Amino acid sequence: MKRFSSELAHNYKKYSFGYANYCLHEKGDKLSEIYASGYLPYSGSPDVKKVFYEARSARVSLKNFVLTSENRRIANKFDGKFKRISKSIKDFDIDNKSFLSFCVDYFSKRHGPSIMPPDRLTSILKSGVISDIVMYEKEGKPSAYYFECSDEKMSHFWYSFYDLNLIHQSLGMWLMIDSARQAKERGVEHLYIGTVYGEKALYKTAFKNLEYWDGQKWTADVKKLKEIARSEKERSVDFIDEWKKELKLF
């Protein structure tokens, strides 16, 4: 695991100097060790492969994982409604037009067309990081997909795509809940669920045994996490680090 940093911003008067931190997944590295060090896979450029970025990510400890009352409320809506099919990415047809269209259409309508254009989706699928693609079917038709990155110790619930008619019924959260249950059954230690920035990401705090990366270590202080996420505007900047300036970005 080769680490590197890139200059981002500074406040010289207060002696505060910011750097964006990255690492390169090298041969022999274990995914679980990279994730445990606070990194997530970077997918912002077609020119970059197997690079991970450090961020305020969150994970769920699965050893004593149980559903909260809010988790159970959502689980009761969808449990038993879909057929779950998990395939190794090596056995999945990532060039299937219907599959690609489903994923691109979801992001375009949910988040805007610039977030997940077709070339970015293809780049992610060929990144070498995804281990499995999980599909949920209803009456023979796909209702949802999510990409999983995993090894024997960890699982990362990466990108998900689902039927837009079910957005307001919390299907996205149910997919995350179901991935946690499945990972626990396999004996996985942690489920990584992405970053927590801003109020919109606070739904992830509905999990018990949640930890977040504070830049040095994993901490279970969810109250502090909520405070930080709700005061995001104080730290947000509208520019990129020096390393990314040399890249072609999506």
From TrEMBL:
It comes from the Bacteria. Residues 134-195 form the BioF2-like acetyltransferase domain. InterPro entries: Acyl_CoA_acyltransferase, BioF2-like_GNAT_dom. Pfam families: Acetyltransf_6 (PF13480). This is BioF2-like acetyltransferase domain-containing protein. It comes from Candidatus Yanofskybacteria bacterium RIFCSPHIGHO2_01_FULL_41_53.
